[in-house]
Design goal:
Largest sheet: 7 strands, mixed
Distance between the termini: 20 Å
Strand content: 15-25%
Number of helices: 9
Radius of gyration: 17 Å
Number of strands: 7
Helix content: 40-55%
Order of helices and strands: HHHEHEHEEHEHHHEE
């Protein structure tokens, strides 16, 4: 993978400036849209994001992980799905945005899962966990927000136990030209308009399609995993290529 492909998404920032680090802009953006985030996720994907998460969880079933780290956990949907399907001993969710974590904690409390799923605020560029702590590390729709992708992958690999699995679910761009035309119309125009009406933040939902278009995809994403020392790298495109599951083993 060329350095340009690896760095392009790192240059895409929520507020379109470089006077503030991307990490801080991402934190500010998600704090701003946290109350509307779940609604917009369902609306933007027509509810298919729930199915995508279920498919990603299936990749981990054979592993039967006891301890899971969910990076960029957001409002906790993936962490809750991981618990329901895999019933691990413990899940730790970490995210930059306290606003998103407040939503996640509310959901977990409603389900009575506070002893199984816990959250903490932190940066995936420097995970506050010891080496080889987790049987599985997951990320759903979060890696394109990393300020430095390779550093993020190295950190996730560091906290994985030998034999543990990294599972990344990320939005992607269709390769079929006709499907791509409709996708661009929807993502570049309709989503930002609806997002601004619901959340009041026009910028956040312009950043979304820009970051998807810029993030490494397919083999380029797998190369980042291999550069971090991971092996058995695989990817599978879903729903006409608008989402992709990536997996790797330490």
């Amino acid at each position: 993978m060329s350095e340009d492909k690896g760095n392009r998404v790192e240059q895409v920032t929520p507020y379109g400036t470089h006077d503030t680090a991307k990490t801080e802009q991402v934190k500010q953006m998600f704090d701003s849209i946290a109350p509307a985030y779940d609604f917009m996720n369902r609306a933007m994907t027509l509810g298919i994001d729930i199915w995508w998460r279920k498919l990603a969880v299936k990749r981990l079933k054979r592993l039967r992980p006891s301890r899971i780290l969910d990076v960029a956990t957001g409002t906790g949907d993936f962490a809750i799905q991981l618990n329901e399907s895999l019933q691990p001993q413990h899940i730790t969710g970490i995210d930059l945005s306290q606003g998103m974590l407040d939503e996640a904690c509310r959901k977990v409390k409603e389900k009575g899962l506070e002893s199984i799923i816990t959250f903490e605020q932190g940066d995936c560029m420097a995970l506050p966990m010891q080496d080889e702590t987790f049987d599985a590390v997951t990320v759903a729709f979060g890696v394109r927000n990393f300020e430095h992708l390779q550093q993020g992958y190295q950190e996730m690999a560091r906290v994985l136990k030998p034999g543990g699995m990294l599972c990344v679910l990320e939005l992607s761009t269709p390769t079929n030209p006709l499907i791509r035309w409709f996708y661009d119309l929807y993502s570049m125009h309709i989503i930002p308009w609806v997002g601004s009406l619901k959340s009041g933040d026009k910028t956040a939902y312009r950043y979304l399609p820009q970051s998807i278009a810029a993030v490494p995809q397919g083999d380029d994403m797998l190369q980042l995993m291999r550069n971090a020392g991971l092996r058995k790298t695989l990817y599978k495109r879903l729903t006409l290529g608008v989402c992709t599951i990536y997996t790797a083993v330490k």
